[in-house]
Amino acid sequence: MQSTSESGAHAGYDGHKRRKGAKVHVAVDTLGQLLAMVVTPANEQERAQVAELAEQVQTVTGDSVELADVDQGYTGTDPAEAASAHGIQLEVVKLPDAQGPRKGFVLLPKRWVVERSFAWLARFRRLARDYERLPQTVAGLTFLAFTCLLLSQLIHLAFSS
To answer: N or C: which end of the chain has fewer CB within 10 A?
Structure first.
C-alpha cells in the first residue's frame, strides 16, 4: 500500500515497484480467507517473509498445509528451505513463457485467489493508503477488513438459502 508522510518509520521504498510504504504479505485458503499475515516496510524482500508466514499458517491450521502456491517474488532456494522447515512445499506460479511481452490480463491458475483477496481489501478506504505509524495498526485494520468480508459472506449465505 502506498504511504503518506504520516506513516512514519515503518514505511520503506520498493525501487522495483517505485512505491514508498508498507507491504502486506498474506496467506489465504482456497476461499480467499485470511490464514496469516506479515506487514513489512516496502523495501523488505518477499523471500525473507516466508519462514514467518509458514510458521503462522501451520500454527493456525494445525500443521495441515503441505503445498502453497506463491508468486514469482518467492522464488529461490532460501524461501523453499524456509517453507520446507515447516512442512510446506512452495509451488511458484509463473507467467507463461510463450506469452512474451505482457499483452493484457492473464488469469494465472490458483494465484487469482490471492489477487482477489487483495482486490477485496482495496474496497476499504482506510487500507488504500498507509496513514498508520505502526505496522501493528496496519495488520489490525487488515484483519478487521478480512473479518468484515467473512461476516458479509456468512450473511449472504444465511439469507440466500
So the answer is: C
Fill in the amino acid letter for 96. P
**Identity of the amino acid at 161:** S
Show contacts of 38-45: CB within 8 Å, 24+ apart. 39/10, 39/135, 39/136, 39/138, 39/139, 39/142, 40/12, 40/135, 41/10, 41/11, 41/12, 42/3, 42/11, 42/12, 42/13, 42/14, 42/17, 43/12, 43/13, 43/14, 43/15, 44/12
In this structure, what C-alpha cell is assigned to residue 47? 523471500
The domain total for the chain is 1
Residue ranges making up the domain that contains 16: 2-160
How far is it, in rounded angstroms, from Cα 37 to Cα 29? 12
CATH number for the domain harbouring residue 134: 3.30.420
Which helix (H) or strand (E) segment holds residue 78: the answer is helix 77-84
List residues bridging with 70 in a β-sheet.
92
- Helices (runs of H) and strands (runs of E) counted in the chain: 4, 7
On the question of pLDDT at 57 being above 70, the answer is yes
Q: How do residues 69-94 score in pLDDT, each as one tens digit?
A: 777 777 788 888 888 888 888 887 77
